[in-house]
Amino acid sequence: MMLLTAGTRGDVEPFVALxxxxxxxxxxxxxxxPTGADVPDGLDVVRFDLDARRVLPAPGATPWALARHLRDxxxxxxxGMLSAAVRETVAFAPDVVVHHxxxxxAPLAADAxxxxxxxxxxxxxxxxxxxxxxxxxxxxxxxxxRWNRATYAVPRAAAxxxxxxxxxxxxxxxxxxxxxxxxxxxxxxxxxxxxxVPRPRDWPARVHLxxxxxxxxxxxxxxxxxxxxxxxxxxxxxxxxxxxGAAGRRGEQRARDRARDRARDRAxHRARGVITAARAHGLRTLLLTGWGxxxxxxDLRGPDVLAVPAAPFGSVLPGAAxxxxxxxAGTTHAVARAGVPSVVVPVTADxxxxxxxxxxxxxxxxxxxxxxxxxxxxxxxxxxxxxxxxAAAEVGRLVRQEDGLAAALDVLxxx
Length: 415
Known about the structure:
Elements: E1 2-4, H1 9-24, E2 30-34, E3 44-48, H2 52-55, H3 63-92, E4 97-100, H4 106-113, E5 117-121, H5 153-160, H6 163-169, E6 187-190, E7 207-209, H7 223-229, E8 234-238, H8 253-280, E9 284-288, E10 305-308, H9 313-316, E11 322-325, H10 329-338, E12 342-344, H11 351-360, H12 375-386, H13 389-400, H14 404-414
Parallel strand pairs: 1-2, 1-4, 2-3, 4-5, 5-6, 6-7, 8-9, 8-11, 9-10, 11-12
Helix pairs in contact: 1-14, 3-4, 3-6, 8-12, 10-13
């Protein structure tokens, strides 16, 4: 079995969990992940030359900056990843290809090998429904009735941006060219909790809502973090893989320095709002700084604040009073599983979709737009979230009963 994924931590960890689960059931599996992805020992892993930190645009970038970023960073990175996906899959010659929606060349490789392929959606982006807007689209936070189906044209159009890169990657196929038509996927694994996205009535039978995929293997916790979370009521703040910001054009050191300073200022501003709101509600703050989306200002340091780059969610979330986060799919499911209420500050991609789903489910305050993030906006949002603890605990109980990995493997072995 070949598993291929691309993106940030929230895109990689479910595939790692599936790879470990499948391998533990005596199946041969190879996992392809981006450069720098954290993968435990013992798995057969190949890596794409794709650095998600460079590919992510800076929050609030201008249209011109985004266009330059697409040309200078995204296209070259995608070209390399798409080509490597074909090359590694053909070399492994699996019985089945299981791939993330971003790996656009996985269908070509599966067709060339004559094996079935399975699409994985970590949010609804490729399976249209009249009951759900597409995650990542411009209307992901609003229900549009029968017009919901039209929103799925947005992710399809985004994929077509890379048609030239897909065509060049086809040179890695045994035939040396792109086939005239693509064989549809045999199944779609929607690795999403039905507690957050109930199954729409118009999804076809080949779409399997498995529940989210996560690894229950205990993770090591830094002693300082363990002591902090055991020390009293606390809030966890994490913007996960939200990048600090673009570093400017390569070779322009002054532009890079200015961009770095601006990014640091924005990260400190966000953390200031979180810590101030936490203190106003008598909460301590565990600040997970991630890729630079949050940074602790020097004047707010104190025994009630601990800032660390990362910590295992399974260890630090269950005892939290609430979580302030960006709404990535992985973080969203981890928070829901922990039974903890949220304040979501969505930034991009599918994050507004998940922010809206958590609020609609009654386990998060109304989303706070990134541009409005401050102590003034977080104070009432934190109060709102704290009032949703019972609802969050009940959802957590239900999510913990799901076994997404077993459901996924049942579908795969049936092929």
